[in-house]
O-antigen ligase (Nonomuraea jabiensis), 434 residues
Amino acid sequence: MRALCRRPSLAAAATVLLTCLPAGRQEVSAGVQVTAADLASLLLVALAATLALASRPTHPLPASAVVPARALVLAPVAGAAGIALLASPDVLTSLPGYVRCLQVFVLVPLAVLVTVRDRTDTLVVGGALVGAAALQGLVGCVQAVTGTGASYAGERVRAVGTFGALDVMGMASVVSYGALLLLAAGLAWRGGRRVAALGGAALLCVPLALSLSRGAWLALLGASLVMLVVHSRALAARVILLGAAAATVLVLGPGAGSDPDLLGRRLASITSAVSQPDQSVSDRYSLWLTATRVWQDHPLTGAGPRRFAELRDAYAPIELSSGSDTDDPVNGFQRRPLLSPHNMYLLTLSEQGLLGLAALCACLASMAWWAVRAAVPAAAGLLAWQGIDFLYGDVGGPSTVVTSVVLGLVLSLVARPAATGWAGGAPVALGVAR
């Protein structure tokens, strides 16, 4: 407890690491599930509130440094969610969704902002994210090799880490965060530390590939390019040219006409997602259409938090499947209902209306603008990945707590550039100067 009082960012790190605890058997029909990481996030919020309200004269930071003015960017998100709750026809159904929205997009990011105050704090939280990514990646690789992961094409070869088949995107998200932080470190460091950081980022791409998550691959590629542009436009141009040349060789080189393996087929399916979508992509398009139909009947404040699942059948096209099949050694075979549109922007639009979508986009866009202006590759890359990820996914599952910590870390980097190591536009990564 004494160490926690001296270094409150340890609570944020613990919140991240606790998401790595095996989820155990889960039932898709279960309601709100509270995990150890959720409880840790409550402790983090309580600790941050205590720090923010403390008025001791010996406090090492002035009040403005404890809660920077840029924290106000979170206020519209809380306000829009509150309005959607009050306007909901079923307030009791919407209340858990409202609380979840506050936890993920307001309270935990604000708590991380309060507790991450200097370079050491940035290292503590960033190190926890990289450590969680390494652990999840290792477990995922073992799953893919031994056939103990989630089922794909009739085989349990999909790497999902400790999150299980019911949170199939969890491992891919955590591994992506770790890879981007290591890439940021590699861009800033020199010598052996640069080699180690870039090597670690490359190694994390292995479990990410084995996750078979097409969206995560595209998001990591886009985020990496954003980081390179923010760091150095000349370096970004060279990397893009080399990447284009390598892609040309792979397409035109020997073996282009051979029968691709599982990973190759998954990669090739990206280009056919529009012309010849598979069932999962087709269902996603149907869910997107359902979300827009819900929004058309509730344009300003939405149908209410957590009400998309209740209204889905009334608005869904006939092509939508009743659910998707999941299978892993822990949970066995289960039929999982499709209860969200798998698009954070459309989920917000349908449940919180134009007010909610405008608040969410304004929050993310403001942080992105600050990250680019201050030349913070880590913050820009993490925000780019999250922005792309929200195009094909939304919040849900144990890994959501990690997302909220990442948003708080980004806000800390752009709101306190001097304390976290970005003073005067001099780039550093994870709190270590060039």
